[in-house]
Amino acid sequence: MTMTDRDGFSLKARVLALFSIDLRSLAAMRCLGALTTLWCLFVWVPDLTLFFTDDGVLHRSDFAGRFDWARFSILRYIDGYAAALGLWTIGLFGAIALLAGYRSRCAALTCWLVYLSFAGRNPMILQGGDVLLPLLLFWMMFLPVGAVYSIDAALDPIDRRGQSHLSIATIGLLLQVLYVYIFGALLKTGTTWVPDGSAIYVALHIDSFVTPMGILLRDHLVPMQLLTFFVYYLELLTPILLFFPDKRQFIRMMTLGMLWMMHLGFRIFLHIGHFWLASLTSLCAYIPARVWNWMGGWYFSDAQRGIRIYYDRDCGFCLKTALILREFFLPRNVSIAPAQDDAVIGEVLEREVSWVVIDAYGAQRLRWDAVAYVMSQSRVLKPFGWLARLYGLIGLGDPTYKLIGDNRKGFGTLTSRALTKTQTIPQLNWPVQIGLGAVILFCFLWNVQGLGGTVQPFKELPQVKVVAQKSGFTQRWMMFAPSPPTLDGYPVFEAIGEEGRDQNKLAEDIFPYPPRPLSFEIPDDVVGLFDSARQRAFLLKSWIMGGDDRIMFFSRLALHRCAEVNRDRDDEGKITSVKIHFVQNQTKSNFQEDIRVHTVAEVVCPPEG
Fold first, then answer.
1. 119 in Cβ contact with 71 (< 8 Å)
2. Got the DSSP string for 391-441?
3. Which candidate, 139, 144, 128, 141, places its Cα nearest to that of 172?
4. What is the pLDDT of residue 176?
5. What φ, ψ does residue 593 adopt, rounded to 5°?
6. For residue range 347-358, what is the model confidence (pLDDT) as tens digits?
7. Cys-Cys with 484: which of 24, 91, 203, 293 at CB 3.0–4.6 Å?
């Protein structure tokens, strides 16, 4: 027996709806997740040798005893720039396929494996986004992320826009998103959060993270306190707010808005890598159907629903192209029909050797003009229409259309094999459901264990722990927990030239590139000293490790930079050795800075070649 409200809407149905995900929300998560993966891949590509091969800063032999907990990585078994580039290329195609929704769940699997491999090859450069994004990619493998707005959906005769999905995988995904906030809040036990409210004030004084906007606002204590309490209590109350069972899900929509504002604020004030993008990706799963229904009314006009597309019945390639264009650029109820079914349109097709698009005003559009018209109908994807029009204006549109038309038999053979109907709604059998249930239970208990206390379920289960670590399920949401760090710093690589003279008779720091005059004064833009957020993470983690590991990792990066600088110099200007310093900036409890310069080591640059 179920309880019902005055409108006859069952409470049970309302609760189940909270654990269902609209297929349009899953499509949004798929696209943003693919874009985030692409962003990571393009950030990695300049540093493939430096961070992911034995010629870089972390050798495979360094893992034993240091990084036994690291994730599975194909690059731990094969080495070299060619191997890293090959895996990177596979990841690139996987991310593009995921974005387009082509074999969506297989593409998610590809992205997951590639991402694990890069993250597992160098755990010293990882950030919060590198933990969250693979978890999202994992759950995408078991969800209908390609059921709408995808190539997969274009080939599905059923229009699934407006449908929702409920399974063990939706429960797992929604709970995983919550863990970031609830356990992140529970780990924030430092007094800078509550009762002081100074956590954001302290965080914005971390010079190697703060943005120019953060520098402008960081000394205003009262606004920083208000933001601190806002972040802390929003994270703490997120599970209640996102699962509040109001009929219109107004509370969920308001909470999503605040969470998006919070993550955008993190990005505006702090250089935190792609964690904010991964977080926005995860929150897409909570977007209610009401939002998409409202956007649907805004996205397409009634006139656009009257557009008609006619293709050559004997051309399977033409039909599939029309279906894909409709899926991405037009309302789903736009008619697609063989031109031969209409005597007038059939005559136009034969005479003009072109597909025929009847626009919203009843006019006929042919060849490339029709392509550009269709691609200009989507509000979000309208730039593709502009590019198509420009392509036509410079005289390339119709020749390209003719070239494709002349070779449509070959394209038809290709698409008959590559573009086949797939099962957009996965049917999870019982073994898979049990396995996913075990993953859900593990992730919850692992997060609980991370809080400390007496609940430590995996201390006696080392095999389970190892499998979870290799798969990327282990997680701890420690961003600025228990308090924002007060230790900050950056390296200074003092270049030494021939006969011990300072390079070019002027003391020079070659850590930033290009080099700058040697100085131990903290610059206005500390972030600008680092080539990337991953280089910053590597150096700060190396400093924290201390001892011989600190010397080894700093020295390898110094030698890499030495070789980089020497390649651009003649014999008289080459560097013979580098003295490594670390400028440590400690923020004290009274917010005064204690700056100390530590000399780490001196390394000799090997002869070129």
1. yes
2. HHHTT-HHHHHHHHHHTHHHHHHHHHHHS----SS----HHHHHHHHHHHH
3. 139
4. 97
5. -100, 135
6. 999 999 899 999
7. 203
CA–CA gap between residue 36 and residue 322 (Å, rounded) = 29
Q: Could you read off the pLDDT of 569-599 as tens digits, one per residue?
A: 887 778 899 999 999 988 766 666 778 899 9
CB 207 within 8 A of CB 487: no
143 within 8 A of 169, measured Cβ to Cβ: yes
Query: Which sign does the torsion angle of CA 280, 281, 287, 291 carry?
Result: positive
For residues 178 and 9, give the distance between their C-alpha atoms in angstroms, rounded to a whole number: 26
- pLDDT tens column, 163-205: 999 999 999 999 999 999 999 999 999 999 999 999 999 899 8
Residue 319 CA to residue 325 CA, distance in Å, equals: 10
Q: How many CB atoms lie within 10 A of CB 122?
A: 25
Q: Which residues of the chain have pLDDT under 70?
A: 1-12, 455, 460, 498-506, 588-592, 608-609
Rounded distance, CA 47 to CA 220, Å? Answer: 38
Give kind and range of the element (H or E) at residue 495.
strand 487-496
For position 232, what pLDDT does the model report?
A: 96
The sign of the dihedral angle between the CA atoms of 120, 537, 135, 47 is: negative
Contact 374, 366 (CB under 8 A): no
Residues 405 and 370: their CA atoms lie apart, in Å, by 14
CA distance 530 to 69: 27
